[in-house]
Amino acid sequence: MQNRLSKLINTQAQNVTSTSRVNFSFLSEEISYPLVVSAKSPGLILSEWVSENREEFNQKLKLHGAILMRGFKIDTVEKFQNFIKVFDVAPLEYKQRSSPRFEVARNIYHSTTYPQDQHINMHSENSYAFNWGRNIVFCCIQPAEELGETPIADNRLVVKYLSESTRKNFLNKGVKYIRNISPGIGLPWEEVFQTKERKVVEEECVKSGMDYRWEEENRLVLSWNNKAIYNHPDTNEQIWFNHAFFFNKYALGDDAFNSFENEDDLPFNTYYGDGSEITKAEIEEIRLAYAKATVMFPWIKGDVLFLDNMMSAHGRSPYKGDREIIVSMF
User: Beta partners for 22?
Assistant: First the structure.
């Protein structure tokens, strides 16, 4: 795995075809993911090309699940705002948050604030929720001095790399999520739900099919069930789309897991939909499936990465130095 990723990181995009104004290529001859789009000549405005070739862009996104647009100099928040306007949909507010987000423009955020020396595990944004953004778009305003990649994984492959028994378990049972929102551990409920009104929280829980209970003064315990494996609404392909791995106790790492005396105090945990345990071996199997499906590449200032959020998962590598990656969902 590491050898393949190292090769991808150090491989220039392999040219495969072109249109009159752009080149299409891949980062490696080994895998057609993500598709790389680059201008054939300087000065091409990315939003104009996408607008003129919307049907082609959409078809290529359905085929590949991820498009990396490179060399168009989208290197400021304002330029990114202007680019996403071409899609004629309002960016989504980030609700039912599981990590801190700092807004840089309306519904455009810094990517997750998280200690730079730690990995962020693979996940599809808001796949634990009942509503999610179908598309998620990243833009590199400033790459890290070292590392700081946003690895991506093809969720169609993740399903294929699971054993038949594990795949069937998740397909038939789905996932049960437990969330414990406690003072001093993770985000407060006010930030999770973007409100200070308990009634608003309760209404959103009911609307989303989530069981809730208030414990003590400011502790909120949530539980809900959701699917783990979906058929993509456009292609009907089977995809892995959930947070069963990301929120599971065995994915925390030993240090984080052992810092809690009681498993009930964990901020998140996951089970099969019938309440039975997802074993440590199964979590490691999912980790390996993600790893086999993952592609990494170094960010270049001005890169735009457009993901079908259901087809693709993403994460983050540790990094050094300043790093500014912004993100929007719609």
Answer: 39
Q: Are residues 22 and 138 in the same domain?
A: yes
Residue whose pair of structure tokens reads 């996951």 in the numeric block: 270
The domain total for the chain is 2
> Residue 320 belongs to what domain range?
2-152+298-329
Q: Which of 214, 222, 220, 211 is nearest to 182 (CA)?
A: 220
pLDDT, one tens digit for every residue, the chain (330 residues) = 444 444 444 445 565 555 579 999 999 888 899 999 999 988 899 999 999 999 999 999 999 999 999 999 999 999 999 999 888 776 656 555 455 556 776 678 876 677 899 999 999 999 999 889 999 999 999 999 999 999 999 999 999 999 999 999 999 999 999 999 887 777 788 888 888 999 999 999 999 899 999 997 788 999 999 999 999 999 999 999 999 999 999 998 777 666 676 788 899 999 999 999 999 999 999 999 999 999 999 999 999 999 999 999 999 999 999 999 999 988
Whether 215 and 241 share a structural domain = yes
Same domain, 131 and 11: yes
Question: Is 92:53 a contact under the CB 8 Å cutoff?
Answer: no
